[in-house]
Known about the structure:
Layout: H1 13-25, H2 37-48, E1 56-59, H3 64-80, E2 84-90, H4 97-111, E3 115-119, H5 129-147, E4 152-154, H6 159-171, H7 176-179, E5 185-188, E6 191-194, H8 202-212, H9 228-241, H10 246-274, E7 275-277, E8 283-286, H11 287-290, H12 295-310, H13 318-330, E9 335-338, E10 341-346, E11 349-354, E12 363-364, E13 369-370, E14 374-375, E15 386-389, H14 391-395, H15 408-411, E16 415-419, E17 422-425, H16 431-434
Parallel strand pairs: 1-2, 1-4, 2-3, 4-6
Antiparallel strand pairs: 5-6, 7-8, 8-11, 9-10, 10-11, 12-15, 13-14, 15-16, 16-17
Helix pairs in contact: 1-10, 2-3, 3-8, 6-9, 6-10, 10-12
Subcellular location: Cytoplasm
Organism: Rhodovulum sulfidophilum
Binding site for ATP: 61-66
Amino acid sequence: MPDxxxxxxxxxxxxxxxxxxxxxxxxxxxxxSGAGAEALRAAVAPVLDRAGAGTLVVALSGGGDSTAxxxxxxxxxxxxxxxxxAVTVDHGLRPGSxxxxxxxxxxxxxxxxxxxxxxxxxxxxxxxxxDAARRARRRLIGRFARDRGAAAVLLGHTLDDQAxxxxxxLARGSGVDGLAAMRAETxxxxxxxxxxxxxxxxxxxxxxLRAEGVAWSEDPxxxxxxxxxxxxxxxxxxxxxxxxxxxxxxxxxAAMGRARVALERATADLARDALTAGPAGDVAIDLARTxxxxxxxxLRLFAGALGWVAGDPYRPRLASLExxxxxxxxGAAPGLTLHGCLARRVGARVLIRREPAAxxxxxxxxxxxxxxxxxxxxxxxxxxxxxxxxxxxxxxxCGDWRARGLKREALLSTPALWRxxxxxxxxxxxxxxxxxxxxxISAAPAPWELTxxx
Length: 454
């Protein structure tokens, strides 16, 4: 079967992507028990050394973990003649958050590390606050790093975070992926992300800060038992006495990470044979080719396709995913919505399209990316132009769009170039008219490896 066999995108990229991730996907970093500065520096160096040439960006909350990361990264960079920057996201959710961001900036000034603050103002009071804050943090830090051409972002997750996350997900009934260890080396949309502290205990890092005479901020929510992580953190003290301490839990999480890699490889093999990527950023799953695959692999394939179409690196909840796939495979639901997508059973195929009501709002063309996967690939964007959904209004201006052989439902969520309410170009619905105006905008979705199987 040719490389692009059943799709319009080179699906073999999946395999290469998975091979590149193997070295960190299930690996457990050595646990460092001592708090000596040299031992800590030696522990983080192997991960930091993986960063490519260029500036490293420390995600600095001002708490103990990220502050220790700042010091250790600063020492590493000085020894190698590298540059580091720090960025703090002020969520504005507590009265003291601005002061904590300012304190982080003052520490950076003392250490000679350039620092910036990015404020989040997008909380509308609806939905899951912690999830919204996490997504905003990732978006703001990622944009800061990309704007500066950074080689990698550094995150301060520790061995304790690994253990707490494992317990929280175990309580939620998570499967292999949820229980798998955080990766020491991963990526946010091709932006490398490193977690140098995964083999270190939180207490050792705070001992290091005290020895260096460096203070840190304590988020009051870290002591608030209303938050699940705080309760699980307290439970760890009891579990440690029973032999289930952070080190042992991290070992189990690492084993789950290795299992995850094996499952991802099997899913990648099935994807090459059973997925077809359409020109409107949609996907078709051939049920005749997936029927003999184990249920776990079919679920992973479905989740990966949904994530790619939605431009969302996070998977749907397992229970929702299982119900949807079961209904579609059985033909019990001709169509349903999930994860910002429309999924329809048509014959022996499941068609997955972006849900028009779920697309992102228009953004300035200079922003470079819209709806998680459509990208501007040039420079010098007209500041008066935006990228947004074509929608019904734009489609009505596209003349005989039916000649393209694409469904209206699929076209509504495709990208269009707008100047105010004037349609400038529609590269999917009307490519021949868009050629000149849209020449520098990719009309193809981002590569599969950005979200599939992540």
